[in-house]
Amino acid sequence: MKKIELLAPAGDLERLKIAILYGADAVYLGGKQFSLRSRASNFDIEDIAKGVQFAKEHNAHVHVTVNMLPHEEDMDGLKEYLMELERVGVTAIIAASPTIMMCAKKYAPKLEVHVSTQHSSTNSAAANYWKSKGMDRVVLAREATLEEIKQSAKNSDVPLEVFLHGAMCISYSGRCVLSNNMTGRDANRGGCAQSCRWKYRLFEKDRQLNDDMHLFSMSSKDLMGADYVADLIEAGVASLKIEGRMKSAYYIATLVKAYRLLIDEIYEKGRLTPERMKWYYDELAKAENRPTGVGFFEGQPRYSGQLFGINGAGVTQEFIAYVLDYNEETKEATLEVRNNFKGHIEAEVFGPSITTTRFMFNDLYDMDGNVMEVAKTPMQIIKAKVPCKMEKDAMIRKVMVKDRREVY
Ligand code: SF4
């Protein structure tokens, strides 16, 4: 049986490499053209080619979102762009527009075409429809329940991709013009301003229903699907997707590492005990995300699936340093500072292959060997003697609270 794919977002080359090093089987990214979020993309075709090369060296794949719903004025250069993606070795495009899908099939036939979640496919008939049109994978809607995912996998023969973790749209996955109307930024051409998460006063005619201490926002909890990984494997789903092309390298590393271990452990041992799953919940909570819920897996989200008033990150740990090098003999690590921290604090290191370990920092040193009280300049290179094994590309986080329940 083919192992389920772990698919992670890549906002730039650094995050692409981190996702793959930490265990993603494939990454998806948006190019500067024909992609939602293209305004935020750092990937021109040369960078996509570099990403593909890195992925191939690590036995991974690159998918490119070409998921804009193009208007007439957006069509120039589409054919050439798709041919370029094929030439540099991209595995698949993720498309929503039939124009783009058919163009890829005609001019870049080696590219797989994955049907974007923007089509809101929630059943096997929809999946089979796309199969009949020659599509190679269907990304199911975030709104599909676990039962619908199982039925879709059982009754269709096209590979299915399922959202496992990340932000949810309060509308029906992007079928929303709130941002267009309030800011002039088109959600379906990559410009969503997340107007749903702003804070609002509510009025019934002239009467204000909420006071200014309790402003209203239409904000859903993020999805956290750890509890459903075993079900999705058993159902025969092809790919599990982490959302978040705008998220940090630390966020990506934390989630990919945890889900990589979880998937591998389920393949090795079957369903895990509640105690073991608790360890994974805690690991996933170390990413700086919003409070999480189960999305639509159990059916329509209710009150408990929404956030009222809470929109910021509930951080249990803070990313403080990136490990550039580790000397096994001298037990010395070379670190790139990301957030300020003092010596002699409790921290945790995790990395692509080392075991996640808590430790106490000893003294910190600048590159001239002077002891530092505080590492406070982001991107400064420093040295530290550390009591546990580290590795290049590992990350160090400061332990802020022991348990996420202390945050909420
Ligand atoms: S404004 Fe909110 S609900 Fe609308 S598309 Fe953007 S994220 Fe979704």
TrEMBL record:
PROSITE patterns: PEPTIDASE_U32 (PS01276). One of its GO terms (molecular function) is peptidase activity. The keyword Cytoplasm does not apply. The keyword Hydrolase applies. InterPro entries: Peptidase_U32 (IPR001539), Peptidase_U32_C (IPR032525), RNA/ubiquinone_mod_enzymes (IPR051454). Gene3D superfamilies: Translation factors. GO terms for biological process: proteolysis. Keywords: Hydrolase, Protease. Residues 316-397 form the Peptidase family U32 C-terminal domain. It comes from the Bacteria. Belongs to the peptidase U32 family. This is Protease.
